[in-house]
């Protein structure tokens, strides 16, 4: 089961709360549904738990169920009975008028608990979330541009600042900050999903830190090997050159130490010679400079 599916399963199992919360959650579901007008209400979902959740909410608040439940590729929940539609519109303080767009009625969201339940309904109907192992991305989509604009003040009131987007006639709000997503999940009533997201983020940070450390150590190791190979080649040529006999003994000792221990680190060589690492590095730089100007090689 995907993270988004587990999230919706947790939301569907959340307590219904007071009657005002039941009303608000249904309102959110219907607003983000596929169709809601004077002739038809249709909610389409592929999540197996949402139909039962909606049935329970509707029976409690409205006293009836959908007229139809079925369809291919998911569940299409439909109300077309005129009396039921009248009751639905009335529950949210709206009038059933042909051809009129459905707008958000803020009077139906009086308390904090109502707004939390409303956002839960909005997400259950129109929301989805990408696997946080891949990226942090939660979106709420609707075919109605005006609804995204009307949702923003509700979210801003609680510190949420999603970005607006549109593609192919679909409009939406997007959360891309892990912290804001965690807070939004908790606000909707999914603390377990929020905790799981925090744990995933922590594990990703640990893996990233380990990878950075391994990459850094690998780069240092490669640089050390490159430097050692360059020194072995250069010091070997220097030893066969005419300049070798005139070198100070400390430089000769440093060159020989490298030639005799090609795999040793700078620290290990410095310890062998009884000097500091910086002192040995200084000698190596001198040897490399001398090697660059040494005379042609001679038998040694």
Question: Strands, helices and their partners?
Answer:
Layout: H1 3-12, H2 19-31, E1 35-36, E2 41-45, H3 50-61, E3 68-70, E4 75-79, H4 82-91, H5 112-126, E5 127-129, E6 138-142, H6 145-156, E7 163-167, E8 170-175, H7 178-188, H8 191-239, H9 249-260, H10 266-273, H11 277-292
Antiparallel strand pairs: 1-2, 2-4, 3-4, 5-6, 6-8, 7-8
Summarize the helix and strand pattern as letters: HHEEHEEHHEEHEEHHHHH
- List the domain count as a whole number: 2
Total of DSSP H or I helical runs spanning 4+ residues: 11
Largest sheet: 4 strands, antiparallel
| Helical coverage, percent range | 55-70%
CATH class of the largest domain: Alpha Beta
The residue-averaged pLDDT reads 88
CATH homologous superfamily caption of the largest domain: Homing endonucleases
- CA-based gyration radius: 35 Å
Q: Give the second-level CATH assignment, the architecture of the largest domain.
A: Roll
**Approximate shape:** rod-shaped
The oligomeric state is single chain
**Measured distance between first and last alpha carbons:** 73 Å
Please give the order of strands in the largest beta sheet. 1-2-4-3
- Content of β-strand: 5-15%
CATH topology of the largest domain, by name, is Endonuclease I-creI
- Please tally the β strands and state the result: 8
Low-confidence stretches: 293-300
User: Class by helix and strand content?
Assistant: alpha+beta
